[in-house]
Amino acid sequence: MNRTARLYALVEELRAAAPRSLTVAVLAARLEVSTRTVQRDLQALMETGVPVRTTPGRGGGWSIDPAMTLPPIHFTPEEASVLATALAGADGSNAARTAFQKIAAVLNGPATTAAAGLAARIVALPSRTDARVRAAVHQALDTNTVLRLTYTDASGRASDRVVEPAGLLTTDGRWYLIAWCRTRQAGRSFRLDRITAAMTTSEHAQSHDLSELLRGSAAAGATRPEMLDPLNAATAPSRPQGD
């Protein structure tokens, strides 16, 4: 996690706990950094005007002005239940935790009751995908760079691969990295929970069409989830208006 992301995560941790305070030790454990780093970051936040403050003595710690809230967002009970289910299946990264905190902070009334009622009936087994592997895969996709990985196939055989990521496929609760494998000189799918190690590189990857790599496979008919359409629309370049 870079410093900018860490500062943002610190604010989210404090805002979620407000008006209670959190100790430096607790914050350091949640962000997986040293207490010295947290102290330095908190001081930097104060100097930039973020309303964080410290309470000395027993039971003290750091807190933030509870007036720092998100813009009003209203969820229906059905929407809140869907979000609770989706978050239950997310990885345990800092990004997933802060996303949950943001959503939980704006739930109220019937939405809170519905989400809490469903959440009380959800249990989860620990993810078999290493958070560092997932982060490396996401970074390689975001930056379109070559990825080096160690993969164990269904027979238990491990091999080192050099791949050019094209996209992610999800089905039946599992995630797959779809990529051009330089080692095999062909398109391949890699189950994320079978990737035992992954390392990003600075080498630019060739662009590969996701649909083309899936052609002829059992996932040839895969389509982009419609629920992601609003994100695609938000990032699409605007068309010039005619005269």
TrEMBL record:
Organism ancestry: Bacteria, Bacillati, Actinomycetota, Actinomycetes, Pseudonocardiales
Residue segments, region Disordered: 221-243
Gene3D superfamilies associated with the record: Winged helix-like DNA-binding domain superfamily/Winged helix DNA-binding domain
Domain Helix-turn-helix type residues, every copy: 6-59
Species for this entry: Lentzea aerocolonigenes
InterPro entries tied to this protein: CBASS_pafABC_assoc_protein, HTH_11, WH-like_DNA-bd_sf, WH_DNA-bd_sf, WYL_dom
Domain WYL: 135-197
Protein name: Transcriptional regulator
